[in-house]
Design goal:
By secondary structure, the protein is of the alpha+beta class. Helices cover about 35% and strands about 15% of the residues. The protein has a 6-stranded mixed beta sheet with strand order 3-2-1-4-6-5, sandwiched between helices. The protein has a 5-stranded antiparallel beta sheet with strand order 11-14-17-18-19, with no helix packed on it. A hairpin with a 2-residue loop joins β8 (about 335) and β9 (about 340-345). The chain is elongated and about 85 Å long.
């Protein structure tokens, strides 16, 4: 249902009634408010909320949304009124951003609406624009803000939807990207809602003018070096000259793509079962290669979306098939893009956050305390054991990335190559440089997550945040020691395989 339908997708940016001070047959404030208020009522009717937060930048659209939300809530019976609040994100990019935050505080104070102002420092990642970094920072704040039963209202409208669709077309997006802006989406414990997505910018401008609202004009919105501003200032006005309903029809096309994307997502979930890897959150390389190219791409997109990663572009998807899936089984190929690394080991495909540089420095491990390895490497500790050895209380040293070592998992068993232990446990070759090797003097006494050596330590715990646990056990103890006969059954033991 479209609460703004029929009110005219082609209203000019200035309201079509006489200037203030000249009598008119229709009260501009009432005429402008109708479809916008109807859209807000519809949002509350479809998704009841204990609290509604307004994403309040201080610009025209969010200023109008804040004002309209206050009017709506005050018109409801007391028992049906959600609590109302505003949240302003100060990105610190513009030199006047602190003044803008004060303006937002003043607006909310005048309307008796509580406001939260959150300052963020959005440093772009490699390959990421400042605008993308700022957007991700905003969404992170909003996600943490929402409690169960709460909504965040965002003032994006039909013209924003048209711009987003055009940008997606120009970068060659698939149907999910062409679906552009969803009206509702789960966000943290609550929900993000765009109640005015079917309303026009002209309707919002008319409302703001009719109510005499003041707002912030961000000068960056006039910078046509930015793609969205170029479309808004140069391209869409030309399209509307020839096709007056351009924004409405583009938004409708985005809605059709959204329906197709939902169908594809449902199918992708079914296809995903045919490409399950050897453990949860992995995919089978052979299963993917057995699929037609378009289905394989759909499965990869669905899997990555489930894992919370950004979608790869078409070039990256082709690279995944050609360079990663088709690589030799003993290779360690890598395909990476912003915030994601795809790696394989044997027949498994892994998706993980980019691994940090492999550590090279050794670390002394004083007795009686955990050892913080730094960053995502986490910490090592020696849990209390029922049969503690002298080493459990002594000073040790931790090293990384050494090769050619041997470890005896059982005092009465064979002395085994470290590579063979990694193979038997299924630790990928690209993960091994991050595994802490624990020494007493020059003797290897533990391979964290894999094995204790010669019974010199009775227990070892390694808690890390590398994002993959393939073949690694968090806590090692007597029960985790490998059977001595296992070496004979190691896949590729003594060969060049990984």
């Amino acid at each position: 249902m479209n609460a703004c339908a029929g009110s005219g997708a082609l209203k000019p940016e200035t309201p079509p009634w006489p200037d203030a001070g000249i009598d008119a047959e229709i009260d501009p404030a009432i005429d402008a408010a109708g479809p916008l208020q109807d859209a807000l009522r519809l949002s509350l009717a479809q998704h009841s909320a204990a609290r509604v937060w307004i994403a309040f930048s201080g610009g025209r659209d969010s200023r109008a949304l804040l004002h309209a939300a206050v009017q709506l809530v005050n018109s409801l019976p007391q028992a049906l009124r959600p609590q109302l609040g505003a949240v302003h994100i100060d990105h610190g990019i513009h030199p006047n951003s602190a003044d803008w935050a004060e303006h937002c505080r003043a607006c909310c104070a005048a309307l008796a609406v509580p406001i939260r102002v959150q300052t963020v420092a959005a440093a772009p990642q490699p390959g990421q624009s400042p605008e993308e970094a700022a957007r991700e920072a905003r969404w992170a704040v909003w996600q943490q803000l929402l409690a169960p039963g709460e909504q965040l209202w965002i003032a994006q409208h039909q013209d924003d939807q048209a711009e987003t669709l055009l940008l997606a077309l120009l970068r060659g997006a698939g149907v999910k990207g062409l679906a552009a802006i969803p009206r509702n989406r789960v966000l943290g414990a609550g929900q993000a809602v765009r109640p005015w997505l079917h309303c026009t910018g002209a309707q919002i401008a008319a409302y703001a003018s009719a109510h005499g609202l003041e707002w912030i004009e961000d000068p960056s919105n006039q910078n046509t070096a930015l793609d969205r501003n170029y479309l808004r200032q140069r391209i869409l006005p030309l399209l509307r000259e020839r096709w007056p309903a351009a924004s409405a029809t583009l938004a409708r096309a985005a809605a059709h793509c959204g329906e197709a994307a939902k169908l594809l997502e449902t199918a992708g979930a079914d296809w995903l079962a045919n490409a399950a890897g050897s453990a949860p959150e992995r995919l089978s390389v052979s299963g993917l290669l057995s699929m037609p190219r378009d289905r394989r791409h759909a499965v990869l997109r669905h899997w990555l979306a489930q894992r919370g990663f950004r979608m790869p572009n078409h070039r990256r998807l082709e690279q995944i098939s050609q360079s990663l899936l088709a690589a030799r089984a003993d290779a360690s190929p890598l395909v990476a893009w912003s915030g994601c690394e795809l790696r394989r080991y044997r027949d498994d495909l892994f998706a993980l956050e980019p691994l940090p540089p492999a550590p090279v420095a050794s670390m002394d491990w004083p007795a009686g305390q955990p050892l913080h390895l730094g960053g995502r490497l986490g910490e090592l500790s020696r849990p209390a054991s029922h049969a503690a050895s002298m080493l459990d209380a002594g000073a040790l040293q931790v090293r990384f990335g050494l090769t050619g070592l041997r470890c005896r998992p059982r005092p009465d068993g064979p002395n085994r190559h470290l590579k063979a232990l990694f193979q038997q446990q299924g630790v990928p070759a690209w993960l091994r440089p991050y595994v802490p090797l624990v020494f007493a003097g020059e003797q290897l006494v533990a391979v964290a997550g894999v094995a204790l050596c010669d019974g010199r330590l009775t227990a070892l715990c390694w808690r890390h945040a590398l994002g993959v646990t393939a073949g690694l056990t968090e806590i090692l103890g007597d029960a985790e020691s490998l059977a001595p006969e296992a070496e004979m059954s190691l896949p590729g033991a003594g060969s060049g395989t990984q």
